[in-house]
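INTERNAL AUDIT FORM
Audit reference: QA-55
Scope: verify that the stored structure record matches its stored sequence.
Auditor: D.O.
Record contents follow.
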Amino acid sequence: MIKRIFKLAALGLFASSFTAHGAAPIDNSALDQPGFREHKATYGVVYRLPKEVNAVLDAKVNGALKADLVKLGLKTEAETPNMPHVTVVHIHSADPATPARMLKALPKPPAPLQITLKSFYPTEAAKGAGHPWWLDLGVVKSGQGFEDMMRYNTVATAALAPLRDGPLPRVTGPVYAKMGDAGHDLVRTQGVSGVNIMQDGKEVRAHNPHTTLVYSMTPYDARLQDAMKQEADKFNAVLPEGIATTFKDVSIVEIGFAGNVVREIYRVSLEDGSALDVATGKKIGG
């Protein structure tokens, strides 16, 4: 299985030089600017949360969380639309043809993934940057499902990162300035931090799969840091064992500045590899 995945990774790297042909040149000049790069369009590959997982979160977390956000004055955060998901990789490109190119370049997905969502925690794009920040629910980092998920991040990053036109806006400006050397390298070479890469023939893992419940550009001051820690502690007590589930498809989506999914474009089955155009409901190809 491991050999097959890394063969796919190598093929993804080879194919990407062709699938990227015709896409906009990659421009990293925004990394030298003090402010965030202008956000035009971000696309991503994500696993949708199954309906039974959303049902648990709706019943035990989302209502209370939304009410708490409103009390904290975070009305925008409480109303931010999102398709609940776990990210594979995000890229930024102003070209509307990018999703179709992504579908063409997408490496063969893994078989259905058995994973457990567990442990709520707040996190910042870069510590001390001020924003953006999130409240996340993590993934248990063990088991075959997790290993396959991580290997697919490596393959997908190699195949899709060349389709970007530059770095993700949210990792430029004040966030890029606060990153360490490893983060800088990933942003310059992949357009995003938090992805796995192959280096000297070995997989180097920076990916941290999770689902996000709160997306925020509000300055992350001491009041909000304390409040989000309390939220995480509260919901960890509500779901101490987490939520076990199986991911059965992967989607190509459009994403807002902070990482929330605003539109699902294509859906690919992990069971048989078939692809669906979500807007039309029609299967693509054979």
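Auditor finding: record pair retrieved intact. The domain at 2-14+40-284 is CATH 3.90.1140.10 (Cyclic Phosphodiesterase; Chain: A,).
Action required: none
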